[in-house]
Structure formats: C-alpha cells, structure tokens
Specification:
Layout: E1 5-10, H1 16-25, E2 29-35, H2 39-49, E3 53-55, H3 58-63, E4 69-72, H4 79-88, E5 92-95, H5 103-116, E6 120-122, H6 130-141, E7 147-157, H7 174-190, E8 196-203, E9 209-218, E10 222-229, E11 231-242, E12 246-249, E13 258-265, E14 268-275, H8 281-293, H9 301-320, E15 324-325
Helix pairs in contact: 4-5, 5-9, 7-9
The protein binds NADP nicotinamide-adenine-dinucleotide phosphate.
C-alpha cells in the first residue's frame, strides 16, 4: 500500500493557503496539523481550514510522532532555526524561500539534513512547473543561439503595515522576498553561478530594501539584470536574449495552468502554449518523490546555497558601492 505522508504547517502564515489544495489533492499527502505561537490561533485556523490537529507551539508540532513532513512558512529569519529543529526531531522539511539568510545557516541546515538522513528542500514552486521546464528545454536546445542576456523583474506594492518583509533583521527587503526569483531563474538558465555581481538598493525605513537593481556576470560573457521592489505595481517577466532569438516569459514565477511564452526568431513571433499543473502541486509531489522514492529534490541544496550566496553578494555590493566577485 502507498504510504501517505502526514504534513504539519509550521505557523499560520498566509502562504499556507497555497499548499492546502495540493496537499488535499495529492494521493500521497495528508494535511494533518498546524502549529501557531498561540493555541487559540492554531485552533481557529484548524477549524477554518478543516485541519484535524492544532498545536499551541512549534515545539509541540515537532514532537507529534504522526507528522512526517514539516512545511516551514515562518518569516525568513526563522527558517534556519526551525528547519534544523524539525530535522533533528526526525521530520522532513519543505522550507520556504529563501532557504536562509547567511551561508553559515545554509551550511548548518545542509549538515542537519545529512546527519539525520531527512529530506530538506527549498519551496521554489516555479521550478517544478511545465513552463519553467519548457524554457530550460528551449535554451538548452540551442534555438536561441548563444545566450547573451537574461533580464527579469518581480515587484509589487507591499501595503501590509508591520509585515516582516520591511525589517532587515527579519530577513526583510525586496531582494530576499521577490528578487530571489529572477536571480534564481537566471542562474537556472545559465546553469552556473555568477562570477561577479553589482547592485544598488533603495533602503526602506526599517532597513530592508524597498527596491533593488542588480546585474550579474557569468562565464562566457553572459549577463543578467533584474529589479525587485515593494513600491511599484505587480510586475513580473523574464526575457532571454540569444544571438539567434529572444524568449519572453510574461509570468515566469507564478505561472497559471495554461500559459504562453513568446519566441522571436528571424523577426517572426511564435506563441508557445504550455499546459502545466496547479502551481504548488509540483513542490509537494517532488517532496513525496524525495521522501518515498529516494529521488533527489529538483531544487538541490547546492542550488539553494548558490542563490543565497548571490543575494549576499548583491547586498554587499549595494553597501560598498563596488562589484563583488563570487
Ligand atoms: N513560494 C511562494 O509563493 C511564497 C509566497 C509568499 C511567501 N512565501 C514565503 O513564506 C514565508 C512566509 O510568508 P507569509 O507572507 O506567508 O508570512 P506571514 O503571513 O507574515 O506569516 C508568517 C507567520 O510566521 C509566524 N511567526 C513566528 N514568529 C513571527 C514573528 N516574529 N513575526 C511574524 N510572524 C511570526 C506567524 O504565525 P503564528 O502566529 O501562527 O505563529 C505568522 O503568521 C516567507 O519565508 C516567504 O518568503 C513564499
């Protein structure tokens, strides 16, 4: 009989809602429990979302022997601490992006996963979607010629007062929150780490960046440019420019089930329709494959480490006003 993995939500974060449908839809998962810093809030949340069990502390959830997988949806500065605690409590962990805020934290998380033999993966949901796989296939096929430039953006208007996203000490700032997507996308397209980065930021009142503007240089004269921000309307795109063609992706990070990407070659525009699946189902199924079938998670920990390393280099560059070699 197929084993069913019992999942527990670490906090009542807004993003949890995105995981509920896939967790209820997958034949290999069951959403069993939620934890909150207060029992009242956990119970109210469990009632609202028909989750069987509620825990009044994160420790209680980790002590629940029926839980197999923890979804860590805490604010960024708590990812490392609670992921390590969950791994040491014998749970597999799907941790929200960014995996952590320093390389020491990432390395401690990787060590904890190795030592406990429990799966750890970063919840970069877009990486599992058919559209992303199609983009990579087109780039790798050589249809675009030699890749020269990858441009992208992710911005939105952040109006939630007091949200952790504003506070530097909580891993706030647009580069950690949404800039991480175009950086991750560019690194995936190139398939290598950047050699050097340069960035500017507009610092917000609470120390996190309100806007970030950055560029990366990769081996072989490949460049990437991105911007991220909390002070402009919702915008996303990725454009991949090669010597033979250009691929434009209007919704690279939050693709719907059906999408179009636009390939331009020899002055002719071709709209390519990609049928995917519900966006967050991919990371849930990938986690099941890793835990139940010993498959490697699609987003490797080395990859997650590379993204954190690039973001830290960008922040250093913005602070020093100098390009930073990686
Ligand atoms: N992949 C995606 O599409 C996506 C989208 C959005 C966010 N995210 C990621 O998901 C994570 C959570 O984001 P979110 O916007 O969903 O968070 P959120 O709504 O602000 O919730 C975070 C939760 O963390 C708990 N918490 C513990 N200590 C806290 C503290 N000191 N301050 C505030 N909350 C604290 C709270 O739960 P309790 O009160 O129940 O303990 C709170 O509800 C972030 O890492 C973010 O990057 C990913």
């Amino acid at each position: 009989m197929q084993k069913i993995l019992n999942w527990g939500l670490l906090s009542t974060a807004r993003i949890n809602r995105a995981l509920m449908k896939p967790l209820n839809a997958s034949k290999r998962t069951r959403l069993l429990a939620v934890a909150s810093r207060s029992l009242d809030s956990a119970q109210a949340y469990a009632r609202e979302h028909k989750i069987p069990r509620a825990h009044g502390s994160y420790e209680d959830l980790l002590a629940n022997p029926d839980i197999d997988v923890i979804y860590n949806s805490l604010p960024n500065h708590l990812h490392a601490e609670w992921t390590i605690k969950a791994l040491r409590a014998g749970k597999h962990v799907l941790c929200e992006k960014p995996l952590a805020l320093t390389l020491d934290e990432v390395d401690a998380m990787i060590s904890a996963s190795k030592e406990t033999g429990k799966v750890l993966a970063e919840a970069f949901m877009y990486r599992h979607h058919a559209q992303t796989l199609k983009v990579k296939e087109i780039v790798d096929s050589g249809e675009l010629g030699k890749i020269q430039l990858i441009k992208g953006a992710f911005s939105f208007s952040l109006t939630r007062e007091g949200n952790y996203r504003f506070y530097k000490e909580m891993g706030g700032g647009s580069i950690w929150d949404v800039g991480c997507y175009p950086i991750s996308f560019a690194r995936m397209v190139v398939g290598e780490e950047p050699l050097e980065v340069f960035g500017w930021q507009v610092t917000g009142q609470e120390g996190g960046d309100d806007s970030f503007f950055g560029q990366m240089r990769f081996r072989g004269e490949i460049y990437a440019q991105f911007d991220s921000g909390f002070k402009s309307p919702f915008r996303t795109y990725i454009e991949i420019v090669g010597t033979q063609g250009v691929l434009y992706i209007p919704f690279p990070f939050k693709p719907e089930i059906k999408n179009e990407i636009i390939l331009t070659r020899d002055g002719k525009e071709q709209k390519i329709r990609v049928k995917g699946q519900e966006l967050y189902l991919g990371e849930v199924e990938d986690m099941c494959d890793a835990v139940l079938n010993n498959q490697l998670p699609r987003v490797s920990l080395e990859d997650s480490r590379g993204n954190v390393k690039a973001i830290l280099a960008f922040l250093e560059s913005a602070e020093t006003g100098k390009a930073v070699k990686i």
